[in-house]
Design brief:
Bound molecules: adenosine-5'-diphosphate
Order of helices and strands: EEEHEEEEHHHEHEHEEHHEEEEEEEEEE
Shape: globular
Number of helices: 8
Helix content: 10-25%
CATH topology of the largest domain: Rossmann fold
CATH class of the largest domain: Alpha Beta
Amino acid sequence: MPEPKGEAAGLDLTGVSHRYGARLAVDNVSLKVARGEILGLLGPSGCGKSTTLRLAAGLEDLQQGEVRIGGEVMAGPGGSVPTEQRHVGMVFQDHALFPHLSVADNIAFGLGRLPAAERRQRAEYWAGRLGLAAHIDSYPHRLSGGEQQRVALARAMAPEPRVMLLDEPFSSLDSRLRDQIRDQTVEVLKQAGTATLLVTHDPEEAMRMGDRIAIMQAGRIEQVDSPDRVYAAPATPFVARFLSETNEIRLRVTAGGRVESPFGALPAGALPEGSEALLMFRPEALQERETGHGLALKVERATALGAYRRLEVSTGMLRFAARLPAGPLPPTGTVLHFGLNPDFCFVFPAA
Ligand code: ADP
């Protein structure tokens, strides 16, 4: 992927590390977010996502590495630009609106230097963009959680930041509303051409909103790629497991660089003959075949999950999770036949 340069430069982190006492929370992280791009920073709780975002914002003193915004150094060995001069917008899970200010005044909060009429005009514009026009003179306690979160986004967007930093901004919202606000947020950010770093522990959120996803574990970035690539070509077992439930079998690599799975032989990539491999496959890799084709598996459990069915199936020795399109649930004990779709199978060296 070409590197953003000059005008296209948004946010650049290079070789950033951070310790809290003896604990290394961020370990040599380099990330680039181009203008107009949304990068999802995804990982489990405690892996260092928020610290990375806080370092980009200047809310945490940089200990090692460099932070640039729009190509200009914001923090590095030579010193640090304070948060309020970095032109970053921020939205957190706890949206922290000012309770004593109206929606209009909340949105206009960061526009201190503009004349009052222009502040009001900009507040009205952003309230309109985010469907808050009817609430412009309301106070935050009169708004729903979703409306409050949209005010927080409008407040962050109004000063036209170069970089937007979002830290779990939708976690407190219920799921249908959350989808709506996610889509609306993407639209607003894309139209403004803002470089956005979105911190989330939710793979679906990262995939729905991100142009690219950086997957983080224990302070390190494991993979940066498009949502379809991280899902279909995970770089590590951790990435594979973090994005969905997985099935796993340990196998030895045979002559010809293959692993003999119960479903048939699969290529083992570059793994040497005789080495131990970990075959991983996603539940949707299991595809039902006609009787007489594929591996016979007994249904141990079947659950309807709306658009699809989750089946637990077993050989007696091995148990797998399968994901099939919605339909009637097979009774426990039914024998079904399955093959593997190689597109959702991954072979790694066994740890
Ligand atoms: P995430 O956002 O992925 O949940 P954080 O960046 O918040 O992760 O935290 C990374 C690690 O640093 C965690 O182990 C956390 O406990 C620790 N940590 C975060 N903030 C502080 C702090 N202010 N003081 C000490 N340790 C902290």
